[in-house]
C-alpha cells in the first residue's frame, strides 16, 4: 500500500512490517489505564474548586472529555497506517525542520505532565504513609523511567493488568459512594449553574484528553497495517473516554463531599467512608497507574527528543542514545517538579490552558492533512529525507498554525492573561472552539492553492 516504504527505511522511529504485532483491542486498556490515574483525579476537581457544584461538574466533565477524546482518537488510526509515532507525522504538514515547532511543544508537554505527576506522587505517599515528599518523588521517577526504558511491550502489559484492576476498584467505589457518602446541600441542584467554572471545567477536561493526541500513535504503530480507521478510533475512544470521565468524576465527587480537603485526601476520605481502608486501596491502584502514565510520558519524550536530534544529525537506535534521552527528560521534569510552588491546582490549571492553546491548531492541521488533503497516502522514505517531497519547511502548515494560534489569543483566559474577547464574555475561555475550525480551514485553503492533494494522490 502507498503508506508503506517505497525503499527500505531504518530509523529510530519507523516500525517495519515484520515487527508489527498485537490486536486492536489492546488500545482500549492502554488508554483506559492511561487516563485513570491521580492526575486525572485532579483534573476533575478543578470545577468544584472554582465554585461549580457536582451536577454541573459532571455535565462539564462528560462534555469536555467527549470533545477532546473525539479528536484524540482520530489520531490513533495514523499509527497502524504509517508505522510512525505521532510527532514524526508532522513533517508532511510542517516540513522536515518546520516540524521542530510542534516537537518542541510536545516535549514541553511531556516534561510538564511528568513534573506534576511527580508532585502528585509525593503528595499521595505523604498522605498514605507519611513518607517525605521529595525522596518519594525521586523513587517514583526512577520506577517510571525503568518501565519506559524497557519499552512498548511492558507498558502495554502493565496497562492491561491495571485496566481490569481499576474497573473493579472504580465500580466498587462508585456504588459505595452513592450509598454511603452524603453530599453537602446544593451539590446536585441543576439551578446552581455558574458559567465561568462550568466552562473552565469543560475545557480543562477537553484539553486534558486532547493532549493525549501527541502520544496516541506511539502505541498504535506496532499494530498490523490492516487495522482500519474505525476500529482504531473506537477502541481508543472507548478506553480514553471511559477512563478519563470515570476518574475525573471520582475527583469531582471527592472534593464536593469533602471541600475542606485537597483532592488526594478527599478521595481517601470518600473511600474510607465506604469501607475503612478502601480509600487507601483506591489511591494505591491509582498511584500504580500514575507510574505507567509517567512511563508513557518518558517514552514519548525520548522518541521526540531523539527525533529532534535526528533532524540535524542522523541518530542511531542504540541503547546509549535511549538512555541519554531518557535521562535528559528525567532531569528536566525533576527540576521543574522540585521548583514547583505549593499552589498545585493553579499551576495545573495553567498547564492545561497552555496545552489547549498550543495543540488545538496542530491537531486540526494534522487531521485535515491525514484524512482530507492526502487521504492517508504518504511516502515514508520522504518523511525521513530533508530533501524529499515534504521539504525542510512547509509554509502551508506553519502559516495555518500561526493563523490558528493568533485568532485564539483574544479568547485566552488564565490567571496570568485574559484576552479582550474573553473579558467581553465574562472571562470564559472558548479559544479551542475558535482555533479548531480556523486552523483547519486555513490549512485546507493553503494546501489546495499549492495542489498538495493532487500530488498526494499520485502516491496511491
UniProtKB/TrEMBL annotation:
Location(s), subcellular: Membrane
Main location: membrane
Keyword vocabulary terms for this entry: Membrane, Transmembrane, Transmembrane helix, Transport
Gene Ontology cellular component annotations, sorted alphabetically: plasma membrane
InterPro entries, per the entry: Pur-cyt_permease, Pur-cyt_permease_Fcy2/21/22
Spans through the membrane: 54-74, 94-116, 137-155, 161-181, 193-212, 232-258, 270-290, 324-344, 350-372, 393-412, 424-446
Alphabetized Pfam families for the sequence: Transp_cyt_pur
Protein topology in the membrane: Multi-pass membrane protein
Domain of life: Bacteria
Molecular function GO labels: transmembrane transporter activity
Family per similarity comment: Belongs to the purine-cytosine permease (2.A.39) family.
PANTHER family: PURINE-CYTOSINE PERMEASE FCY2-RELATED
UniProt-recorded name of the protein: Cytosine permease
Organism: Sphingomonas lycopersici
